[in-house]
């Protein structure tokens, strides 16, 4: 934020709250944007239309429900980013909803037809903490000497397992030891219905997605993906 000078303290305070409120619709409505507990997320309600850069419990709940419906928002992080927007747009198209690419009342209602809790308890298993967990160097030559580029910590591995940002996993479990087998923690409940059998897989470089389609061309699942590069481009064709 750029520095702005005002003639008196009162105006400075007013400017500060206006500026912060403009960063998030959830903040502007007085909703808790960063209080993320199992109860808050499981009971989250849609206060207003949720779109780009919105963050908080409603976004996290929607991300988990999208994940369970096979329209992945990528890493669950409680922030409405570009992957969440793509997932919402595809979900709306598949469910005959207005293609707004934001979470409106109709989309929220459709997502919440899945009534299972979005956050659940999980007991950390021995395999989750077994590793090996090794730091990954920044230098590319040093990376090339490693046998594998695996997880650096149990927290990172658990984040991958439950499709959630490791930082958000820690926020959900502030007093828990994520390196101890048997520890009960709160995690996204991403176990949904089995992925349907598809007829076609489309890897789309234009929006970095992988889609599973049925025989009629309807999208059954949509996943974000890192696709090729200038050094290893995506081969075009079948």
CATH architecture of the largest domain: Orthogonal Bundle
Order of helix and strand elements from N to C terminus: HHHHHHEHHHHEEEE
Low-confidence runs: 1-33
Helix count equals 10
Number of strands: 5
- Which percent range fits the helix content? 25-40%
The radius of gyration is 21 Å
**What is the mean pLDDT?**
84
Instruction: Report strand order across the widest sheet.
Output: 3-4-5
How is the biggest beta sheet arranged? 3 strands, antiparallel
Which percent range describes the beta-strand content? 5-15%
Global structural class: alpha+beta
Give the CATH class of the largest domain: Mainly Alpha
CATH superfamily of the largest domain: PGBD-like superfamily/PGBD
Number of domains: 3
Shape: globular
CATH level-3 fold name of the largest domain: Muramoyl-pentapeptide Carboxypeptidase, domain 1
Structure description:
This protein has 238 residues and is an alpha+beta fold. The chain has 3 domains: 10-111, PGBD-like superfamily/PGBD (Muramoyl-pentapeptide Carboxypeptidase, domain 1, Orthogonal Bundle), CATH 1.10.101.10; 119-188, no CATH class; 194-238, no CATH class. The chain is 33% helix and 11% strand. It contains 10 helices and 5 strands; from the N terminus they run ααααααβααααββββ. A 3-stranded antiparallel β-sheet has the order 3-4-5, with helices on one face. A two-stranded antiparallel sheet has the order 1-2. A hairpin with a 4-residue loop joins strand 3 (200-204) and strand 4 (209-213). It is globular, with a radius of gyration of 21 Å. The termini are far apart.
